[in-house]
């Protein structure tokens, strides 16, 4: 039955017709920490341990090179009342601030109490610069049930030194605040799964994917009643998009010759991240005031 629902929904998207209301539990942000963050964290950790012990080798594809995305942050979360540790991504936007998704800290059901922030590494559970912090400011109007205002700022306990492997990325300028970025190619990066079914393997390094930014009207067909002006979406055509464990990570474009972060990975459909649905992000230009107040 789930497959039939998905096929009908994708047909509706293709023809520009609404697919009807979507329940919160069918969006990946709501209940993320327990349902996705912790299981993905455990699988990533085991895969990295297998690789480092020589039990497995990289098969197919190449990981992101160290320093290719120096603004990428990995987040390992400790969660109140849960034994396992969750995983998310983030974006270094200054020497002591990381931009992430609010649902990585509180998902509407579970509350994290500490992040281990990982910078300058293509592995999540080893290497790089690692800092622990509980200083997190969520957007005051974060609404988990409708996935609105899904942004948060992490305060690092100390400033990090910039290098070839660690460097903040620029925010959009005020002049770019009115741009939709629709039609542009963007890069999403993260430590998460590379498909719904494959799970996490020993080649699960920091990965990236090139995505096409679509209009909010097109995205709203897939997520009726959810998409707001403060969202930005990418097409899932070709079975591409963000996946489990990528939440909170960056969506980046090159605009006027400079790299800027335009999105924070927020949600997709829980049926699967490679079935053609769009990926949805918090639109950074909608939150410049909030970000600058906390930077």
From TrEMBL:
Record's keyword terms, sorted: Disulfide bond, Fibrinolytic toxin, Hemostasis impairing toxin, Hydrolase, Protease, Serine protease, Signal, Toxin
Any one Gene Ontology molecular-function term assigned to this protein's record: toxin activity
GO annotation (BP), single: proteolysis
Coiled coil: none
Main localization, broad class: secreted
Cellular component, GO, one term: extracellular region
Compartments reported by the entry: Secreted, Extracellular space
Pfam families attached to this UniProt entry: Trypsin
CDD domains tied to this protein: Tryp_SPc (cd00190)
Domain called Peptidase S1: residue spans: 58-295
InterPro entries: Trypsin_dom (IPR001254), TRYPSIN_HIS (IPR018114), TRYPSIN_SER (IPR033116)
Signal peptide range in chain numbering: 1-16
Function, in words: Fibrinolytic activity; shows preferential cleavage of Arg-Gly bonds in all three fibrinogen chains. Contact with the caterpillars causes severe bleeding, due the anticoagulant effect of the protein.
Protein name, as recorded: (apollo) hypothetical protein
UniProt source species: Parnassius apollo (Apollo butterfly)
């Amino acid at each position: 039955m789930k497959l039939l629902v998905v096929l009908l929904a994708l047909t509706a998207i293709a023809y520009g017709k609404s697919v009807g209301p979507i329940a919160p539990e069918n969006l990946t942000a709501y209940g993320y920490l327990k349902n996705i963050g912790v299981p993905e964290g455990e699988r990533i950790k085991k895969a990295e341990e297998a690789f480092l012990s020589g039990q497995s080798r990289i098969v197919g594809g190449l990981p992101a090179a160290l320093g290719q995305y120096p603004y990428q942050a990995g987040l390992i979360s400790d969660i109140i009342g849960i034994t396992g540790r969750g995983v998310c991504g983030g974006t270094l936007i200054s020497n002591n601030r990381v931009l992430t998704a609010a649902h990585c800290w509180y998902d509407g059901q579970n509350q994290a109490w500490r992040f281990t922030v990982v910078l300058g590494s293509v592995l999540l559970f080893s290497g790089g610069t690692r800092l622990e912090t509980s200083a997190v400011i969520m957007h005051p109007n974060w609404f988990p049930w409708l996935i609105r205002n899904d942004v948060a700022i992490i305060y690092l306990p100390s400033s990090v030194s910039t290098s070839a492997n660690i460097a903040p990325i620029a925010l959009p300028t005020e002049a770019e605040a009115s741009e939709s970025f629709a039609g542009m190619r963007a890069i999403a990066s993260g430590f998460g799964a590379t498909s719904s079914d494959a799970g996490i393997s020993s080649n699960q390094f920091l990965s990236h994917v090139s995505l096409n930014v679509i209009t909010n009207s097109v995205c709203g067909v897939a997520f009726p009643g959810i998409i707001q002006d403060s969202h930005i979406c990418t097409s899932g055509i070709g079975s591409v998009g963000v996946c489990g464990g990528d939440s909170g990570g960056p969506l980046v474009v090159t605009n006027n010759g400079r790299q800027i972060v335009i999105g924070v990975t927020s949600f997709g459909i829980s049926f699967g991240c490679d079935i053609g649905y769009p990926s949805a992000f918090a639109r950074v230009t909608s939150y410049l005031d909030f970000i600058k107040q906390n930077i």
